[in-house]
Amino acid sequence: MSAENGVSAGADMAAAIAAGREAGAEIVCADVDAQEAMMRMWREMRPRRR
Questions:
Q1: How far is CA 27 from CA 5, 11, 15, 35, 44, in A?
Q2: DSSP designation for 10
Q3: Phi, psi of 4 (to 5 degrees)
Q4: Model-level pTM?
Q5: Higher model confidence: residue 2 or residue 11?
Q6: pLDDT tens-digit readout, 19-40
Q7: 47 vs 22, which has greater pLDDT?
Q8: Could you tell me the sign of the dihedral formed by the alpha carbons of 12, 17, 21, 26, in that order?
Q9: What is the structure's pLDDT at 18?
Q10: Which of 42, 24, 26 is nearest to 34 (CA)?
Q11: 46 to each of 21, 25, 49, how far by Cα in Å?
Q12: What gap in Å lies between CA 13 and CA 30, rounded to an integer?
């Protein structure tokens, strides 16, 4: 997908980090396993919303 759009993979994240540093923000890596995040969301979701 990145090749189709003429950018390198992760360019958006690199740009966000650069902008955050420029603004003086603390940079925190908060990535979680996608499968674990989906399972947690599913468990917390009310049965009617599933």
A1: 26, 16, 12, 24, 28
A2: T
A3: -65, -30
A4: 0.50
A5: 11
A6: 999 999 999 988 888 899 999 9
A7: 22
A8: positive
A9: 97
A10: 42
A11: 39, 36, 5
A12: 12
Token digits of residue 42: 């599913």
> Which residues are CB-contacts of 11 (< 8 A; sequence separation ≥ 6)?
2
Q: Which structure tokens are listed for 12?
A: 């958006």
Q: Which residues contact 26 (CB under 8 A, 6 or more apart)?
A: 20
Buried b / exposed e along 12-48 (16+ C-beta atoms within 10 A) = eeeeeeeeeeeeeeeeeeeeeeeeeeeeeeeeeeeee
* Distance in angstroms (rounded) separating the CA atoms of residues 46 and 30: 26
